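Comment on the following before class.
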Amino acid sequence: MNRIIERLRAAARVVVFTGAGISAESGIPTFRDAQTGVWARFSPEELASPEGFRRDPTKVWEWYRWRRELVDRAVPNAGHYAITELQRQIPNTVVITQNVDGLHQAAQSRDVIELHGSLQRACCPSCTRVRRWELADPFPPTCACGAMMRPDVVWFGERLPQATLERAFDASAECQVFFSVGTSNLVHPAASLPWVAARRGALVVIVNVSMEGQETGDNIERLTGPAGVVLPQLVKLAFPTPL
């Protein structure tokens, strides 16, 4: 880890990009793994697309309420807290996540860029109003304008929000160290973020239990293992607590 620690201590800007792997360590099933039991009878497109919502909005909301209940029982793991500590050590550390569970915020990470939205919010397809969604709210939730709201997440066939994506690319282009944690880096456009950083001279550190399908290069390092084990060790070595 010597090269990573050296670059990390010298870095003014850091990006931590996370995927489903870090949340899986908190017991949250991945998107497709969440299709169990009764939900196994439905395709992802039925439960997570504008077309599916138009056909059966109540069924879509029932699935998302079930997923939200799973998320609300989960707690951040040591990987999430290590990222929060990294933000404390290097204030210009930006967290970019593909996850919709809010565990980074629960671990007190700040200014998290949520590429795919959040299960904690609902948005109105009619007037575009966004608000926090509580499980105790009337179900399905309705907007002040009278329309049925939808989960504030990105669905199949939808583009990532342009302003959010631009923030993520800008942060990746400006950092000196880029961590890719718990993601395969195969789904674009988000999969381009590590390589944008690498082309601009950043050290890219891939943390994953599996390293299949990843690019290689002189400024790419790999740490194999769960984020909840690897990240705390790395942060502790880079920024030891004074006696």
Summary: Residues 57-73 form the longest helix (17 residues).
